[in-house]
Amino acid sequence: MAVAIRLSRGGAKKRPYYRIIVADSRSARDGKYLEQIGTYNPMLPKDSGERVKLNEDRARHWLSVGAKPSDRVLRFLDAAGILERAPRNNPKKGEPGEAAKERAEEKAAKIAEAEEAKKAAEEEAKAAAEAPAEEAAAEEAPAEEAAAEDAPAEEAAAEEATEDKGE
Question: Is the pTM of this model over 0.85?
Protein backbone atom coordinates (compact mmCIF):
# COMPACT_ATOMS: atom_id res chain seq x y z
CA MET A 1 0.00 0.00 0.00
CA ALA A 2 1.45 3.39 -1.05
CA VAL A 3 1.04 5.89 1.75
CA ALA A 4 0.98 9.66 1.20
CA ILE A 5 1.13 12.60 3.57
CA ARG A 6 -1.12 15.22 2.03
CA LEU A 7 -3.81 17.83 2.63
CA SER A 8 -7.53 17.14 3.00
CA ARG A 9 -9.75 20.18 2.42
CA GLY A 10 -12.42 21.30 4.80
CA GLY A 11 -14.04 24.59 5.71
CA ALA A 12 -16.68 26.64 3.95
CA LYS A 13 -16.78 28.03 0.44
CA LYS A 14 -13.91 30.49 -0.07
CA ARG A 15 -12.80 29.83 3.53
CA PRO A 16 -10.46 26.83 3.21
CA TYR A 17 -9.14 24.83 6.12
CA TYR A 18 -6.92 21.80 5.63
CA ARG A 19 -6.01 18.74 7.66
CA ILE A 20 -2.56 17.27 7.18
CA ILE A 21 -3.33 13.58 6.88
CA VAL A 22 -1.68 10.25 6.19
CA ALA A 23 -3.73 8.27 3.68
CA ASP A 24 -3.56 5.58 1.05
CA SER A 25 -2.50 7.36 -2.15
CA ARG A 26 -5.44 5.79 -4.00
CA SER A 27 -8.11 7.20 -1.65
CA ALA A 28 -10.07 10.37 -2.45
CA ARG A 29 -8.72 13.76 -1.39
CA ASP A 30 -11.34 14.27 1.29
CA GLY A 31 -12.01 10.58 1.77
CA LYS A 32 -10.89 7.97 4.27
CA TYR A 33 -7.48 8.45 5.88
CA LEU A 34 -5.25 6.58 8.30
CA GLU A 35 -4.28 9.41 10.65
CA GLN A 36 -4.46 13.18 11.00
CA ILE A 37 -1.07 14.60 11.94
CA GLY A 38 -1.74 18.33 11.74
CA THR A 39 -3.73 21.26 10.36
CA TYR A 40 -3.15 24.15 7.95
CA ASN A 41 -5.21 27.34 7.90
CA PRO A 42 -4.23 29.51 4.88
CA MET A 43 -6.55 32.31 6.01
CA LEU A 44 -4.19 33.25 8.84
CA PRO A 45 -1.17 35.55 8.27
CA LYS A 46 2.03 33.86 7.13
CA ASP A 47 3.92 34.78 10.29
CA SER A 48 1.24 33.31 12.58
CA GLY A 49 2.20 30.23 14.60
CA GLU A 50 -1.37 28.91 14.30
CA ARG A 51 -1.20 28.74 10.50
CA VAL A 52 0.48 25.31 10.42
CA LYS A 53 0.22 22.87 13.32
CA LEU A 54 2.11 19.63 12.87
CA ASN A 55 2.72 16.62 15.13
CA GLU A 56 6.40 16.19 14.34
CA ASP A 57 6.79 12.80 16.05
CA ARG A 58 4.00 11.23 13.98
CA ALA A 59 5.31 12.86 10.78
CA ARG A 60 8.76 11.36 11.41
CA HIS A 61 7.18 7.97 12.06
CA TRP A 62 5.21 7.94 8.82
CA LEU A 63 8.22 9.13 6.84
CA SER A 64 10.30 6.33 8.37
CA VAL A 65 7.81 3.72 7.15
CA GLY A 66 7.86 5.09 3.59
CA ALA A 67 5.12 7.73 3.35
CA LYS A 68 5.65 10.24 0.52
CA PRO A 69 4.72 13.87 1.26
CA SER A 70 2.94 16.06 -1.28
CA ASP A 71 4.68 19.23 -2.48
CA ARG A 72 2.82 21.50 -0.06
CA VAL A 73 3.33 19.17 2.91
CA LEU A 74 7.02 18.87 2.00
CA ARG A 75 7.26 22.66 2.36
CA PHE A 76 5.75 22.41 5.84
CA LEU A 77 8.13 19.60 6.79
CA ASP A 78 11.10 21.60 5.49
CA ALA A 79 10.02 24.65 7.53
CA ALA A 80 9.75 22.42 10.62
CA GLY A 81 13.23 20.97 9.95
CA ILE A 82 12.00 17.40 9.56
CA LEU A 83 12.79 16.77 5.90
CA GLU A 84 15.01 18.66 3.45
CA ARG A 85 13.28 20.04 0.36
CA ALA A 86 15.42 20.34 -2.77
CA PRO A 87 15.08 23.72 -4.47
CA ARG A 88 13.42 23.68 -7.84
CA ASN A 89 14.25 25.72 -10.90
CA ASN A 90 11.71 26.35 -13.64
CA PRO A 91 13.07 29.07 -15.96
CA LYS A 92 9.96 28.92 -18.15
CA LYS A 93 7.60 29.67 -15.26
CA GLY A 94 7.71 33.43 -15.69
CA GLU A 95 7.69 33.31 -19.49
CA PRO A 96 4.39 34.35 -21.09
CA GLY A 97 2.46 31.89 -23.25
CA GLU A 98 2.09 32.01 -27.03
CA ALA A 99 -1.16 34.00 -26.98
CA ALA A 100 0.32 36.58 -24.62
CA LYS A 101 3.38 36.92 -26.85
CA GLU A 102 1.14 37.48 -29.89
CA ARG A 103 -0.86 40.13 -28.01
CA ALA A 104 2.38 41.86 -27.00
CA GLU A 105 3.61 41.87 -30.63
CA GLU A 106 0.28 43.29 -31.85
CA LYS A 107 0.38 45.96 -29.16
CA ALA A 108 3.96 46.88 -30.11
CA ALA A 109 2.96 47.09 -33.79
CA LYS A 110 0.02 49.39 -32.93
CA ILE A 111 2.28 51.61 -30.86
CA ALA A 112 4.81 51.80 -33.71
CA GLU A 113 2.04 52.71 -36.17
CA ALA A 114 0.74 55.38 -33.81
CA GLU A 115 4.23 56.87 -33.48
CA GLU A 116 4.68 56.89 -37.26
CA ALA A 117 1.30 58.57 -37.69
CA LYS A 118 2.23 61.13 -35.04
CA LYS A 119 5.53 61.89 -36.78
CA ALA A 120 3.77 62.20 -40.13
CA ALA A 121 1.24 64.58 -38.61
CA GLU A 122 4.04 66.68 -37.10
CA GLU A 123 5.84 66.79 -40.46
CA GLU A 124 2.62 67.83 -42.20
CA ALA A 125 2.10 70.54 -39.59
CA LYS A 126 5.65 71.80 -40.16
CA ALA A 127 5.14 71.67 -43.90
CA ALA A 128 1.84 73.53 -43.55
CA ALA A 129 3.52 76.20 -41.42
CA GLU A 130 6.35 76.59 -43.93
CA ALA A 131 4.08 76.35 -46.97
CA PRO A 132 2.35 79.76 -46.58
CA ALA A 133 5.74 81.48 -46.44
CA GLU A 134 6.93 79.51 -49.48
CA GLU A 135 3.65 80.11 -51.30
CA ALA A 136 3.89 83.84 -50.64
CA ALA A 137 7.47 83.85 -51.92
CA ALA A 138 6.42 81.67 -54.84
CA GLU A 139 3.53 84.02 -55.68
CA GLU A 140 5.81 87.08 -55.58
CA ALA A 141 8.45 85.42 -57.73
CA PRO A 142 6.14 84.70 -60.70
CA ALA A 143 4.83 88.25 -60.53
CA GLU A 144 8.37 89.61 -60.71
CA GLU A 145 9.22 87.14 -63.49
CA ALA A 146 6.12 88.16 -65.40
CA ALA A 147 7.04 91.81 -64.95
CA ALA A 148 10.54 91.05 -66.16
CA GLU A 149 9.16 89.16 -69.14
CA ASP A 150 6.72 91.97 -69.91
CA ALA A 151 9.44 94.64 -69.70
CA PRO A 152 11.43 93.40 -72.75
CA ALA A 153 8.19 93.05 -74.70
CA GLU A 154 7.24 96.61 -73.79
CA GLU A 155 10.70 97.82 -74.73
CA ALA A 156 10.48 96.02 -78.06
CA ALA A 157 7.04 97.53 -78.68
CA ALA A 158 8.38 100.97 -77.85
CA GLU A 159 11.28 100.48 -80.24
CA GLU A 160 8.92 99.38 -82.99
CA ALA A 161 6.78 102.40 -82.33
CA THR A 162 9.76 104.72 -82.63
CA GLU A 163 10.86 103.02 -85.82
CA ASP A 164 7.39 103.41 -87.28
CA LYS A 165 7.43 107.10 -86.46
CA GLY A 166 10.83 107.54 -87.99
CA GLU A 167 9.80 106.21 -91.32
Answer: no
